[in-house]
User: Which sequence fits this backbone?
């Protein structure tokens, strides 16, 4: 049943979709921030181990984001064309993909966790200890990945039919339980990093169970359909390449930061998790764009879709600027929430000006990402992200390493990445070639 019939011409429709999505998107990174604070007080080596292990796990989730974003666009077009059962069927097929990819990741993690974490930690200060902690955390936390991917698929079809309220309950409830469980396992049971990983798995498995139950309640056919799976994988290919290039940036950033020492990578973890939290807050506007733009184009309302795109871009700019003010004002206190180490605090301040200055631009980029995903213009998104990575970030970040520019140099490289994306996506949005009617 649809819980929402908002039109994209109504600003309240955007807000009504975006606010529940904001809570859903914020729940996981907020939990990660809590987990970072809990582990951070174990020591800087443990915090660095969580940073590397969490970076690898986030790559898996980010690469599978097409299960949410691609499914939202496809389901929204069918929903806009009046075919709700077809929209739900997109969720069934996405869930099959989620289960297959999730199980594969668990198996790979058991074999490759050690070599990959040693590669990322390098041979710098504390490198061996960081790698050992990261590998231990990753092997356990990987069992939550099937749940993460099933939740992504569930979010995708439910956003497509403009139901953002049930996902709010599913995700928020599971993460609140896990946030309470984390300190008990880490400190009360004395499990340290192992307790952190176990709390992650608990939240992710519970959330997945709730999404699967919602899908079963639709009483739709559950068998796999190869033609739909192939179509979803075609969209996923472009979104995965886009995401892979972004994750290459963040993984490279973590690797370079690790080579500057445990304090540097610990500070990078704090700034990066706050960045991810802000990014997902901003992404709530993009979720509304995916659903509304997809529905408008599925119904043939091209002018309405373009109007929504303008509103979404403005909303992203305003929200990004607001977050920049808050994060800038919190500079004296936020790092201390996550670590009591003075060296970590000093390193965090090297990243902070870049972090704050990028937020208004990121607000526009993330919002317009949602517009193009909802329109199915994922090929362009793939290309602009590859250009931003290969011609912007990667040369900049490894130059920072070669010149020993420290954590400030790493975040300067991230600035190049965001600003190139900003220029290219604004040009695309203004030209309007993405606005093609029909249920693709």
Assistant:
């Amino acid at each position: 049943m649809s819980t929402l019939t908002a039109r994209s011409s109504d600003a309240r429709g955007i807000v009504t979709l975006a606010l529940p999505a904001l809570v859903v998107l914020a729940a996981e990174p907020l939990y990660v921030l809590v987990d970072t604070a809990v582990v951070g007080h174990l020591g800087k080596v443990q915090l660095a181990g969580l940073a590397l292990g969490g970076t690898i796990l986030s790559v898996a989730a980010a690469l599978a984001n097409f299960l949410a974003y691609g499914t939202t666009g496809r389901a929204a077009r069918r929903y806009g064309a009046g075919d709700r059962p077809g929209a739900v069927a997109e969720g069934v097929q996405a869930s099959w993909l989620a289960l297959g990819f999730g199980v594969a990741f668990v198996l790979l993690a058991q074999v490759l966790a050690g070599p990959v974490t040693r590669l990322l930690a390098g041979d710098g200060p504390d490198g061996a200890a960081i790698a050992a902690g990261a590998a231990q955390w990753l092997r356990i936390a990987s069992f939550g990945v099937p749940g993460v991917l099933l939740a992504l698929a569930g979010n995708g079809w439910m956003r497509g039919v403009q139901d953002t309220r049930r996902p709010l309950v599913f995700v928020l409830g599971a993460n609140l339980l896990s946030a309470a469980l984390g300190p008990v396992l880490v400190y009360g049971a004395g499990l340290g990093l192992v307790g952190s990983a176990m709390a992650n798995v608990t939240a992710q498995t519970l959330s997945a169970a709730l999404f699967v139950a919602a899908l079963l309640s639709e009483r739709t056919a559950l068998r796999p359909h190869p033609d739909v799976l192939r179509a979803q994988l075609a969209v996923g290919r472009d979104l995965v390449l886009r995401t892979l290039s972004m994750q290459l940036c963040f993984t490279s950033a973590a690797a370079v930061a690790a080579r500057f020492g445990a304090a540097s990578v610990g500070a990078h973890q704090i700034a990066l998790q706050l960045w991810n939290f802000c990014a997902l807050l901003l992404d709530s506007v993009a979720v509304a764009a995916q659903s509304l733009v997809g529905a408008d184009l599925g119904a043939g309302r091209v002018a309405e879709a373009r109007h929504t795109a303008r509103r979404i871009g403005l909303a992203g700019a305003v929200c990004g600027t607001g977050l920049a003010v808050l994060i800038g004002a919190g500079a004296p206190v936020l790092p201390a929430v996550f670590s009591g180490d003075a060296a970590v605090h000093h390193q965090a301040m090297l990243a902070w000006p870049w972090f704050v200055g990028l937020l208004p631009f990121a607000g526009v980029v993330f919002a317009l990402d949602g517009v193009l995903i909802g329109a199915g213009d994922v090929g362009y998104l793939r290309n602009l992200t590859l250009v931003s990575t290969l011609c912007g970030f990667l040369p900049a970040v490894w130059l920072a390493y070669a010149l020993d520019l420290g954590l400030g140099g790493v975040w300067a490289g991230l600035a190049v990445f965001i600003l190139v994306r900003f220029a290219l996506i604004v040009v695309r949005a203004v030209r309007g070639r993405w606005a093609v009617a029909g249920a693709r």
Q: What stands out?
A: The chain has one domain: 11-431.
